[in-house]
Structure formats: structure tokens, C-alpha cells
User: Fold this.
Amino acid sequence: MGADNLRNDSLIRMEGITKKFPGVVALKGANFELRAGETHVLFGENGAGKTTLIKVLSGVYPPTEGKIYINNEEVSIKNAYDARQRGISCCHQERSLVPQLTVLDNIFLGREFANKGILNKHLMRKYVVDRTEKEGLDIKDILDVEVSNLSIAKQQLVEIAKAVIYDASVIVLDEPSASLTDEEMAVLYNLIERLKRNGVGIIYISHRIDEIKKVCDRLTVLRDGHTITTLDSKQDITEDNLIRLITGYETGMSYPPLRKIEGKKILEVVNVATAGGLKNLNFDIREGEILGVGGLEGSGKDKVGRLLFGLEKIVSGHVKVFGEEIGKASPNRMLSKGIVYFPADKTKILFMGRPQLENQSILSLKSFTKTGFLQKKREKMEVTENVHKLSIVPKDTSKMVLYMSGGNQKKTLVSRGLLKKAKLIIFDEVTHGIDIHAKGEIYKLLHELSQNNVSIVMITSELDELLNISHRIITMHEHAIFNTFEHEEASRVKLLNSYFGIE
Amino acid sequence: MLMKIKNANTMASIFGKYGKLGIQLGLFVSIVVFFALMNPVFLTADNALSVARQSTYLAIMSLGQMCVLIVGGFDLSVGAVAALVSIISTMVMLEISDPAVAIIVGILVGLTVGTIVGLLNGFIVATFNVSPFIATLGMMGIINGITLMISSGAPVYGFTEKFSAIFGYGTFLGLPSPVIVSVLIALVMYVLYNMTPLGRHMWAIGGNINAAVLSGLSNMKYKLIAYGISGFMAALTGIMLSARVSSGEPTLGHTMMMTSLVACVIGGVAVGGGAGNVPGALMGVILIGILGNGMNLMNLGAYGQEVVMGVFLLMAIIFDRYMHPGR
Assistant:
């Protein structure tokens, strides 16, 4: 904090940033300021708007409303290239390196040193080595390696090196510790200190509180697309404080009361470990139960859903459905047992260009087929019945799903499960990307399903859903179950603590 | 980027509502009016019948092509398969003295060969997840080469006259036999796509392979079925055309690969899969038939016609972007 005179220079100011997507508002008038020479942490739950804010800043999305100032001058950032030209460098989790090119070629992509059209590799190499060595970054051994041969961690270092070489004035680090080793993190911390001394502003996104404490100068809390507060002093950055701040209640949502679940076990997971990294998994699901699965991004919670649908390779342990051990699990086998899975990404589960009717009945065509022919009348009748029961809009069952709202698309999936007469429905992010009204309707539907003895696994990053909809909650941390809570004993603080691996 | 998507969506919804039919009807009317003005013969009943007869071959091949397009593929080998089958069936018939046996065995062998090539295409595409465009292009090269090798590049003559009399020039209830065959095929395909789970599953595979697999559908199974049907149809086209020209021809149906694609795409079959149906594809076939016939009447040579077909394919593919926004 030696450069106090620099710290009041505002590098970036974002005012009243609103970003609307079809069916969802990701940012609602968020404010953010980055000063020269500081590390500013963005903190919030998954879906709080951190990533969207960064994408607005780096020119990936234009904001719906709001102003962006760079060096106190209002600008409009046209695209990612424009952002880069203005000195904003993002080291994303989704990397932007060309895998087939070498590290050196990647660093100079689009701004190669050339003499009369001939590349001057020697000069480029010398330049990179000089610049990175000065900053304590050691990449000279990998300059000629193809990026596809590098570990994720090394790739991230290359991204950072690129930002340094381009003289970026703003560097965004998105969860760097997710892929870097402790040793590499130490290098990164040193680099951050050096960059700060040169007046570079660093936006740092992380979920890890110990790491935040280490690097943070100031911290801005985002919740539900709003800026909750900015903590200006390091003393305020404590675990209790942070968890209290990202905890907030959504108002105006009423939840149906939960009944006691005493049905028989329909599915048991016994000591399962998977090739994808899940380990020591032990849990069961009872008839009619809504089991919430929570955790941070990367905690492995999405893999739990895939596991139950036979999409993860089991290396030890087993899954039992209705008491029967499933040997070779596959989607087909699980479907035949009445298990249905809807992943978080709707484009991976909906047939966007096909009518609503076909989207609803795809799993149950067998029951609509007699002597080889589809009974289209009966199919249409049952689909229409569901359209009314679930109040799906539009009522026209021949309408393409593409033209339906996010909420109605989710209802179409619910109907798909109903027509299949599913015993267990696995929803990953069931309310992802839909508005608050549609959320309420979906919750009511889940509740009704549960009352009709359909079990539900609800994988979600929304605390409210876990707390209010689930009979039981398991929280994932580092690909294992960290805690299990009964509905009555769960609280926001307890859930968040266990997300962060705190007992 | 989002703005672009939004624009495409509004464009798409306009096209989606009125587009498919509107574009087809508009094209249809303007082509008919154009040729009618250019040549009075165009609008006669005789000419209409000749358009119908010529279109039947393309119809059979295009319905096979449609199956492959619907599951998200391409079949560039159809023309080559038609030629190979024309040669093989002819050679088989030449080996058998009894005319009835010769015809039956010749047809069966031809259809089997075509179906096997189709299945092979499907197997390669599904197993190695390679671009169907390139895979079937390779197959096209192989098949063309084999055809030229076994025929030495020359037509094969001398199969039983009965074969041509029945399948080339025969009539049944006053209708030419090729017309009857193609109508039967069209009916079967219509039933398949509109009344059976199989059709639904093919649309699903092409519409969203991820979602289809999560719905328990096997990619391999439906790719095999689609490419198998396409190979079968190409073989049938080859057999019917051989009967018409009374010989096995090593270059038969070569231009039909492109025209079958044009017909399907103009007929609203989605490039990339997930949409398309029999009536649309047939409409596309008739459009191409009229176009070809009109160009003949205008004395536009084969080279010029190929240029026009290429232009139509490009136009059709551009419209396809807007007609099938769900992709």
C-alpha cells in the first residue's frame, strides 16, 4: 500500500449497470469502481452477477443500461478486442488461447513483430523473456510448446503473462486458484504485488476466504445483480461479515409447507467414487422426497445428477434403484427405471426447433404406440391436459419450444417427466434463467410432484431453493458430500459455511 | 452478438410462420410464369406429364437424402451409388438366363449393395464422429472408382427386355410404373415420419443430439437407419433409371446428388437436421423438375443448367438459416 497517491485515481467506474437477458435480469443497477494499484475482490454467490459484470467490462456483452468510465472518461466498449485495446485484460476460466499454436505465437497473435512481412521470432522471444523475467514470471521454457500440451495451470500463467506483456492497466483474474498449485499461487501473489506497484488495477474473483484475505485491498459484494456494499478496509473482511453480506432474503416469495417424508428408499448411493472425481458418496432418496444438492461451482454438485442418470463412470461402490444394484448404468437403463434427468443447460435437453408436443412426449412414445403406430390423438390429448394443468403458455402444442419463455420451457420439461410417469426427476438448476413469478410456479409444481410420490433431486446454486423447497439437503465440497441437513436444521449460514468447507 | 441473434430470431419467426410455404409458392409461381412466357409448350398437359415422369426418379432419391438430412447428415454418395447399382444389377441380370429370376435377383442384389453402402456411411459417421460431408464425399470417390473399374467406363447392354418393359415403360392402371413406385415410396415414408415413433426419433436425433441421447436414443441406430434408407433409395433410383435407359450406365445419376440436396432444402428440410417432411421434399422435387424441364425447353445446355442448380442450392441454404432458427 505504498502508492497512496495513486490509489485515488479511478481506473474503472461502472455506474448503474443493468443487463437483461431474455427472461432474466442478471445485473440490476450494479456499481463498481476499480482504482489504480489495488486488488479489488468481487464476491458473491454463483449467479449473483459477478461473471456478467466482468463480461460487460470486457466487452463480451453490451450493458442494457448504465455507464462505464475508464480514467474518468465515459466510454462504450464495443467488443472484447476493443476492451483489450483499452487496457482491460481478462484471464477467464474459459481460456482464449489457440490450442494449436505455441505459447509465443499465442502471445503475439495479431500483433506480431515483423520486418517487411517476415516474422521476427528472435525479437519476439527476447521481448517476452525480458518482460516476464522482470515481473518474476518464468515462461521461457514453454515458449515453443503448443498450448494444447500445457496443463490448465500453465495456460493460465500464459494468459497472465499475455496481460503483463500487453501492458494491461486492468487485469481480471477469475478464480485463479481453481487451477493453480500453491507454488504457482505464490508466484501469482508476488506478481500481483509488483503489478500493483506499477499502478495496475486487479479485479479478483474468488470464493476462498483465506485467499481473499491474502490479496484483497477492497471488496465489493454482489447479490442478485445488485451491489450490496464495498468494503474499503481490510479489517472489515472477515468470514462472518462476508457470509452475512451475501446472505439476503428474496422477498415476495411464498413457499408451500413441507410434509414429513417417510416413504421407502427408492435409490441408494453406496460408497461411490467416479472417474470424474466424485468420492465417498453415500446418500439415499426416499419416495416423494425432494433432495436438495448445494455447493459452489466446481464442487461436483452437477456430477451428482449425472451419476444418478448413468452418465458418470463409477470406479468403486454402486447405485441401487428400488433395491436392485445397477451394474452397467446408462441413460437408457435409468430411464427404464423411471429416472429422468434434466441438465442445467436447456439447449442440451430441449429440441428447440421442434413443437412443444414432441418435446413433451419424447420419453413416452412407447406408451403412445399401438401395433407400431403412434396414437397421435391420445398423445395430443394428454399433452394438452398437461398444458392446462401446468398452465403452459402458449397453449398451442404445435409451437416451437424456441419461442417459449424460459419458465414455460422448464414446465415443458416437467410435463415430459409427468408423461413418462417418472419415479425420480433430477433437475440441475431448475429455475436457472427464469423470472421470479415463474420460479414460484415451478416450486409449486415440484411440491405437487412430491405429494404424488415422485422423488426429486434438485441440484441448485440458489440457497432459497435448498432452504425452502427441499426436505433434505446435501452440500458438496471438493467433490464429496460435506454435510447433510434436515429441512428444519438448515440455515443460510450453515449452508454457506459448508460450501466453503467450514464445519 | 446478442443483437445479431435477436435479429435472426425476428427474421426467423416471420419466415417460420409464413416463410416455408410462402417461399415455395412464390418460387413455384414465378418459375411457372417465367417459363410459360418463354415457351408456350411449357403449359401443355403433355409437358406436365413428362415433368411428372422425370421427377419420379429424383423423388425417390430425394426422399432418401431427406432421411439423412433430418438426422443431421449429408449423403453425397447417392449419385455414385445409383450408378454402381445400375452396373451391378445389369451384370447380375446378364448372368441369369430365366428373365423372371434375372429381374428379381438383379433388383435384390442392387438394393442390397446400395443399402450396405448406406449402412457403411452411417457406421463411419456415427463411430468416428466425422463430418458427414467429407465421409460421404470419400465414399462417393470410392464408389465411382469401383463402378468405372467393373464397367471399364462403358455402358453394359443386353439385359432382358422385360425389365425395361415393366420398370421403364410399363403402366399400371394407366399410370407409368416409375410414378407408381415413387408414390408408394412417398406413402411409406410419410407414414414412417408422421405415424411411427421412428420418425419422431429421427427428428429428435437431428434436432438435438445431446437431448436425444439423454432421452435414451442411440445415435448409431438412427444414423444407420437414415443412411441405410438413403443407400436403398439411391439403389432403387439406379435400378429404375437403368430400366428406363435399357442399359447399365456408369455415369447414371451423377448430377442427381446435387439436385436431391437442392430439392430437399428448397422443400424445407433443415440442413443440419431436425426438420423436414415428405410433402415439403416432394414439393421441392417438383420445383426442380419444372425448373429442369423449363430450362430444356429454353434450350439451355447441361452446363448452364448446372450453374442454375448451384445458384438454387446456395439460395436454398441461405434461406434455410432463417427457416430453421431452432438450430
Q: What stands out?
A: Confidence is low (pLDDT under 50) at residues 1-7 of chain A.
